[in-house]
Structures are given as C-alpha cells and as structure tokens.
Amino acid sequence: MSKKKYYGVRSENITGVFETWEECKSSIEGVKSVKYKAFPTFEEADAFAKGIDISNIHIQTAAESNSVIAYVDGSYDGSQKRYSFGCVIITPQGKIICEKGSNEDPEALTSRNVAGELMGTMFAVRWAYSNGYYSILIRHDYEGIAKWFTGQWKANSYCAKKYIEYMGKYRNAMNISFQKVTAHSGDKYNEMADELAKKALMESKI
C-alpha cells in the first residue's frame, strides 16, 4: 500500500494543498506558471504552497516534538571499493550538524551505496543517544532503512544483518521512527546529506 501524499500547489491565482493527485491535476490544468510538488506531510506541502522555506518546518518539528531529525544518504565508489554516508542532524534547539564518513569492509561492498545508507542511520541513532536525545526521526530515500528495522523486509545480506543487530541495541532505549523522502526532489537537507556522502568519498582519495 502506497503512503499518503499531500500536493502543494503554488501559482499567481491558485494556492493550496490537495490530498489526491486527481484533485491536484484538476486544479492545475490550464494554469500558467504553476508550481506543484508532492510531500509526505501536510505541513511541508502547505509551506511549499505558501512559499515558506521548508527547512524551517523541519526545525520547528524537531523543537515541537523534542526529537532529533536526521537526514541520511549513502554513496559508493567502485574504483576505490569504498562506501560512504552523509548525515544532517537537526536538534530540537534548531542546531544543524553535518557529519560524514566512509568505510571499506569487504563483506559490505556488494551492497554498494546501501551500505553507506545503513552506516549513516546507525551513526545518527548513536549520535542522538550519546547526546541525550531519546527520540529520533530518520528521513531517508532508501526504503530498506525502515523496512529492515520494522521487519517488513527479511535481513538476508551481510549489511542488513549487521544493521539489525546494531539497531537492536537502541530499539527499546529510544523512540526510532522513519519517514521516506523522494531522492533528488529538492529537499534541502536530503541534498545536503547526498553531497556529504560524495564528499566523504572524495576526501578518502586524498
């Protein structure tokens, strides 16, 4: 079952949020210079429709929920036989923390960039717990991050098994939730995490 989406629409004559693609499509037909985009939450779609910087919504959400929000992404370089992660952490106090890293575990290389995605998620959870935050929302673009954790996908690969084993240490110690975002859709922090992952690989060449 596909997850619910909210469609933000912005133009000179039309501004609003629609809950189905059919409603959105009907509203924009024949309208010139209209901008529209799908979001996982009403708040983000509403901010887009009103021309508000969506990044401010994430900071507000972190503050209101007293929860860390972490964007994670991964990358892979076959020539180096190395994978990496990028992580953007938003604290309830509104602080933005950017982290990155890479590794070359031979058994993980077959998972390519997914190995980096999982490494980034584990880093984010460890960082939150170590800094006294016991609630975290992981925003990710690879669905396995959530589905392996929840058991919707069976962990068959080396990386997935290591991920489940590691995350099990925190499962009952903190609240861990997930939200999928669309890759390369213009989400500021998702793009930052992607760039950090790539930068980690570039730095490992030096």
From TrEMBL:
Statement: the UniProt record of this protein carries the keyword Metal-binding: yes
InterPro entries the UniProt entry points to: Ribosomal_bL9/RNase_H1_N, RNase_H, RNase_H1_N, RNase_H1_N_sf, RNaseH-like_sf, RNaseH_domain, RNaseH_sf
Primary enzyme class: hydrolase
Enzyme Commission number(s) of this protein: 3.1.26.4
Family indicated by similarity: Belongs to the RNase H family.
Domain RNase H type-1: 64-202
Reaction(s) the record says it catalyses: Endonucleolytic cleavage to 5'-phosphomonoester
Keywords (A to Z) from UniProt: Endonuclease, Hydrolase, Metal-binding, Nuclease
Highest taxon in the source lineage: Bacteria
PANTHER family xrefs: RIBONUCLEASE H1
The keyword Ribosomal protein belongs to this UniProt entry's keyword annotation: no
GO molecular function list: metal ion binding; nucleic acid binding; RNA-DNA hybrid ribonuclease activity
Biological process (GO), any one: DNA replication, removal of RNA primer
Identification of the protein by name: ribonuclease H
